[in-house]
Specification:
Glucose Permease (Domain IIA), ten-stranded antiparallel beta sheet, about 25% strand, rod-shaped, alpha+beta
């Protein structure tokens, strides 16, 4: 029971009981309740600043873990970039150089992304700088990988063409070494056996027994396989890439026009047809429609010692058979 309160009345010279009206009691109750709520709120704010809730602790751990993972991701991106830089260097200075392709400029490989701000949606957060930096590194790496992938696709195509070209270039002697009786005449000015004057000999003569096999010196397509007044039975092979070879004075042609042939495939037999004075093969190599010395195209089946010996023999002023 609440204590009663009195006041001294000077008019009556006596104490009188204090009588509180209902409105006063309500106001006092509201004031007390407000004070209690305000005090509780202030206490909660102060407490929350000093002590973390379990949920806050969990969120803090998740943020710290996120920052750690982003840091590790950035390191991995840097390592991948260094590896890609090494591949790009080899690509420019080995692969593309070998296949005679222009190197890709560094400015093109390292070019950024122009135009609008691609990372605007990532701005405005406490960790925006970290996230934007990682995203930029990932985007740059992705672009460089795309450029490198396209370059390697080009290298594969060039390699296939190179392989085809190497298989097509005349690279072997058209007669096996063991079947030769002698090197009759090489490339250059020679005395013609029937015309009896010196003239340019635009090929090499290989002396061998009649019926000895003659081989295609490179992959190609037969463009001629018939008889000529000068060459006798003759075969022309278009090897592509500017190369053509001719095989003359055959006793028998063993191929036909339009046929695709492989290096080492038999295309005819040695004979003595046309303007010839003894069984042999007259062999020519032409590059861009001009005759060249066939000696430069025997690297496929001659050792260095054999090459030097044949080169000396071909340079001697010997008898020509055609």
């Amino acid at each position: 029971m609440a204590k009663e309160k009195y006041f001294y009345d000077s008019d009556t010279l006596s104490y009188k009981k204090v009588r509180l009206n209902k409105s006063y009691k309500i106001k006092k109750g509201i004031f007390l309740a407000t004070s209690i709520l305000l005090t509780s709120f202030i206490g909660w704010v102060v407490f929350s600043q000093i002590f973390e809730s379990p949920k806050q602790k969990q969120q803090k751990r998740e943020l710290e873990n996120l920052e750690l993972n982003y840091s590790l991701l950035n390191k991995k991106l840097q390592q991948a970039t260094h590896v890609l830089d090494d591949i790009a260097d080899r690509d420019n200075n080995i692969y593309r150089m070998y296949f005679e392709a222009s190197p890709i400029p560094l400015e093109q490989r390292k070019a950024g992304f122009g135009g609008v701000n691609r990372y605007k949606d990532l701005e405005g957060y406490n960790n925006s700088e970290m996230i934007i930096n990682t995203t930029q590194n990932l985007d740059r790496l992705s672009k460089q990988l795309k450029i490198q992938s396209e370059s390697l696709d080009e290298i594969v195509t060039l390699a296939k063409n190179k392989e085809e070209m190497l298989a097509s270039i005349p690279a072997i002697m058209p007669v096996k070494k063991g079947n030769l009786t002698r090197m009759a005449s090489g490339y250059g000015m020679r005395m013609h056996p029937t015309l009896k004057y010196r003239k340019m000999h635009e090929g090499m003569d290989f002396s061998a027994k009649k019926g000895t096999s003659i081989y295609a010196s490179g992959n190609g397509v037969i463009t001629r396989a018939d008889r000529s007044a000068t060459y006798g039975n003759v075969v022309y092979i278009d090897h592509g890439y500017g190369y053509e070879t001719r095989y003359a004075h055959m006793s028998k042609i063993k191929t036909s026009k339009g046929k695709k042939v492989k290096r080492g495939e038999v295309i005819g037999l040695i004979g003595n047809t046309g303007r010839s004075v003894a069984p042999h093969l007259h062999y020519e190599v032409r590059y861009n429609k001009k005759s060249v010395n066939p000696m430069g195209y025997y690297f496929g089946n001659l050792t260095p010692t054999e090459f030097v010996a044949m080169q000396k023999a071909s340079m001697q002023e010997g008898q020509s058979f055609d």
